[in-house]
Fold this protein.
Amino acid sequence: FSVTPGSEVGGEVRAADGTIWRPYARAGVIVFDDNETSVTANFASAPAGILPFEVRGDFDQVQADVEAGIHVLTASGINMKLNYEGRYGEDSQQHGGSVKVTAPY
């Protein structure tokens, strides 16, 4: 199992032209009770005598989890969302992001 406490802050700013800006940031930590995992598998059409095998791996037991982004909503109906997501451990890092634009037609 894992526990993921965190906090998020954000706000909303309205510009004179009607555009709404919604920035946000989130930070937390992920703590796993065990940092090892394993899977036992075998080949579907393996000849007789081929035994199942086990694949093992480990990962950081404690990881920082962050996200930041902004939503932009315009008066013309065009909306944009940009964000970054990151996870940082002692031995690993994961980074991701997205850009989404929608427009009426």
Observations:
- The beta strands are 2-3, 6-10, 13-14, 20-32, 36-41, 53-58, 62-73, 79-89, 93-102.
- The longest strand covers residues 20-32.
- The radius of gyration is 22 Å.
- The mean pLDDT is 94.
